[in-house]
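Q: Start with the shorter request: fold the first protein.
A: Done. Sequence, then structure:
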Amino acid sequence: MDAFDISAGKRAFGPGRKCLFGVTILIIEDSRSASDALQLYGSALGARMRRAQSLAAAERHLATYRPNVVIVDMGMPDGSGLNFLQHIARIALPVPGLVAISGSDPDEWVDAAK
């Protein structure tokens, strides 16, 4: 591939690339617009996307499915996303990727989420 061939680069790294093919992502987010954006982006990259709009719904989902990645909003209406992450770790679910997100100040939750 020629280093200056822009079209080849677009094919290799553009939106048609399904780099998350075979990956299942569970989004735990109460904001419909935020979860829609994450779902569209993940789907475009080839991931199977699941959504839970509450921690209770996420708990039911995890009783049946084993996603590869769980994205959790820290401020859920029915509880703390941080406590939910700790719960997942405590019961040793085989989830390779845990991601914490929030619209609030990161200084309030980042260290605890790590």
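Q: Next, the second protein, separately.
A: Sequence, then structure:
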Amino acid sequence: WQAKILLHGRLSLPADPDREFFAVETVIDSGRWYAQFPIGGPLVLVPGALIGAPWLVNPVLLAVAVVAF
């Protein structure tokens, strides 16, 4: 979710008018929606989201780590 927000060049989303239906503990809702966690992890997933395969990022990073080791 956060990687898709970053992919569109934004750091947050405008709050939904029906906030009570979308209340989640890990999402800060103060007029804007954003996650309570740092953006480092989702930022790494953005290249995968660009090609439509964010699941591919972790195996590629593992392969890079194995080669580097």
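Q: Describe the second briefly.
A: DSSP finds three helices and three strands in the chain. The radius of gyration is 15 Å.
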